[in-house]
């Protein structure tokens, strides 16, 4: 076995060089064997197969074979060195610009290859009782239960025609675009659509509709009735890129009014919602809503805890990176050409993601937290079961489910995504079991703001 010399030279705490010296004794035998194989297979006019003079083979293939074999040996030597010496690196080793190679493949003798490596900053972090994190939970009050009850009743209610517009009704009508003098614009927008008053942001605009009847005409601004350009374009029946040429003055003629009559709180509704007959009256219905909301929001509380831990540790821990090396490496490995302008724009986000990965890794190493293959497969199976359930499809047997999960994990992007989710779950569990959490009940609206 050939053991080529690999020497490490540290430039600073974040950058180093790996120098690989290759002498003829390292590559001579491999190159000769490769050339002999070429000789046996070569079909050159004037010579029988397998009897081509070696001088001709060397002239035709010598340099390329030498280059391929030496490059392969150097790569193997560097990988072996990194593994054996347990060198923690960022990205991959890269040939040093300018003077990264010494030697002549046309006149082979000794070769010297120099590679740059980026080193991760040292991070010493763990979770203990000294870490104090707020753990916010949604206060499940009567108003929230009532709102959820109304949402359920609306979902199972019936849409019926109404004579007058109510605050939460759906109003069908015809939009007609006007000129600045309020005359109908020739060739302007003329489109029928629906306005759901329940989802309007402005109470003032909603009140303009309330009490109106079929045939009434209102002066409206489409911006007040839509949520952004995409929604506005769909409402007016135009393409989004056509909005700049459309004015803000319109008439809206009401053609139909639809009112949602909520489902009654009775045994029929309860059985639809809970076939196990566990809910029999309004009190047990509200109790069930509260229980379901607590379960749902507990997962959101965990996610918020992860966000709090992320923000605090990212702010507290100061690190530096071999930025010049990383920029070169990113440009080299990117699938599509990357301009310096785009790289600079995205680089801070990349460093932020890298910093968190290193913090998370340090925490897991400190607490001996690992993600093994079985966990990965089991977690993937649980996600697949959830997907089957969401689409109303039957869950396959264990053997088929396991096969599907392993096939799913052949996609590296999916693997990275699932490992990320598993790591998040493990960090949350670690913090809940190890850190000091300070529970606090907050209103639903305040809780939602925490995620923004």
Key attributes of the depicted protein:
Alpha-Beta Plaits; 5-stranded antiparallel beta sheet; 13 helices; Chitinase A, domain 3; 48% helix; alpha+beta
Summarize the structure.
The chain is α+β, with helices and mostly antiparallel strands and 452 residues long.
Tell me about this structure:
It is built from 13 helices and twelve strands. With 452 residues, it is an alpha+beta fold. It has three domains: 114 residues, Trigger factor ribosome-binding domain (Alpha-Beta Plaits); 104 residues, Transcription elongation factor, GreA/GreB, C-terminal domain (Chitinase A, domain 3, Roll); 170 residues, no CATH class. Strands 1, 2, 3, 4 and 5 form a five-stranded antiparallel β-sheet that branches. α1 crosses α2, α3 packs across α7 and α10 crosses α11. The longest helix is centred in the middle third of the chain and has 35 residues. The radius of gyration is 34 Å and the shape is elongated. The two termini are 58 Å apart. The relative contact order is 0.12.
Give the SSE layout:
Layout: E1 5-10, E2 15-22, H1 24-41, H2 54-84, E3 90-95, E4 101-102, E5 111-118, E6 132-138, H3 142-155, E7 158-161, E8 170-177, E9 190-196, H4 203-209, E10 217-220, H5 229-236, E11 250-261, H6 267-273, H7 282-316, H8 323-333, H9 340-366, H10 373-390, H11 398-408, H12 412-434, E12 436-442, H13 444-449
Parallel strand pairs: 6-12
Antiparallel strand pairs: 1-2, 2-5, 3-5, 4-5, 7-11, 8-9, 8-11, 10-11
């Amino acid at each position: 076995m050939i053991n080529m010399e690999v020497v490490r030279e540290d430039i600073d705490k974040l950058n180093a060089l790996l120098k690989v010296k290759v002498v003829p004794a390292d590559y001579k035998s491999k190159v000769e064997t490769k050339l002999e194989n070429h000789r046996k297979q070569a079909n050159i006019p004037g010579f029988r197969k397998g009897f081509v003079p070696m001088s001709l083979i060397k002239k035709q293939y010598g340099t390329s074979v030498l280059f391929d074999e030496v490059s392969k040996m150097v790569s193997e030597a560097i990988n072996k060195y990194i593994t054996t010496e347990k060198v923690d690196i960022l990205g991959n080793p890269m040939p040093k610009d300018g003077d990264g190679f010494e030697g002549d493949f046309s006149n082979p003798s000794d070769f010297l290859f120099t590679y740059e490596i980026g080193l991760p900053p040292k991070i010493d972090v763990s979770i203990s009782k000294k870490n104090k994190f707020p753990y916010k939970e949604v206060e499940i009050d009567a108003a929230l239960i009532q709102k959820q009850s109304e949402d359920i009743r609306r979902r199972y209610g019936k849409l019926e025609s109404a004579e007058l517009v109510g605050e939460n009704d759906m109003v069908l009508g015809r939009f007609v675009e006007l000129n600045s003098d309020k005359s109908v614009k020739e060739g302007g927008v003329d489109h029928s659509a629906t306005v759901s008053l329940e989802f309007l942001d402005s109470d003032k605009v909603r009140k303009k509709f309330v009490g109106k009847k079929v045939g009434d005409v209102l002066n409206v601004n489409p911006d007040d009735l839509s949520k952004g350009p995409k929604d506005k374009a769909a409402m007016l029946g135009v393409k989004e890129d056509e909005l700049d040429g459309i004015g803000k003055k319109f008439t809206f003629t009401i053609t139909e009014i639809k009112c949602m009559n909520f489902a009654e709180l009775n045994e029929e509704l309860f059985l639809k919602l809970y076939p196990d007959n566990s809910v029999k009256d309004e009190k047990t219905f509200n109790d069930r809503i509260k229980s379901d909301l607590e379960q749902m929001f507990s997962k959101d509380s965990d996610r918020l805890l992860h966000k709090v831990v992320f923000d605090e540790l990212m702010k507290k821990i100061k690190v530096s990176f071999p930025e010049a090396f990383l920029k070169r490496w990113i440009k080299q490995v990117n699938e599509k050409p990357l301009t310096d302008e785009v790289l600079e724009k995205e680089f801070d986000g990349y460093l932020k993601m890298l910093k968190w990965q290193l913090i998370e890794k340090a925490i897991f190493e400190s607490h001996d937290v690992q993600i093994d293959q079985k966990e990965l497969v089991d977690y993937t199976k649980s996600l697949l079961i959830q997907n089957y359930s969401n689409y109303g499809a039957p869950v396959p047997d264990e053997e088929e489910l396991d096969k599907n999960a392993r096939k799913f994990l052949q996609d590296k992007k999916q693997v990275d995504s699932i490992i990320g989710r598993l790591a998040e779950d493990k960090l949350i569990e670690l913090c809940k079991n190890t850190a000091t959490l300070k529970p606090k009940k907050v209103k639903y609206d305040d809780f939602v703001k925490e995620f923004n």
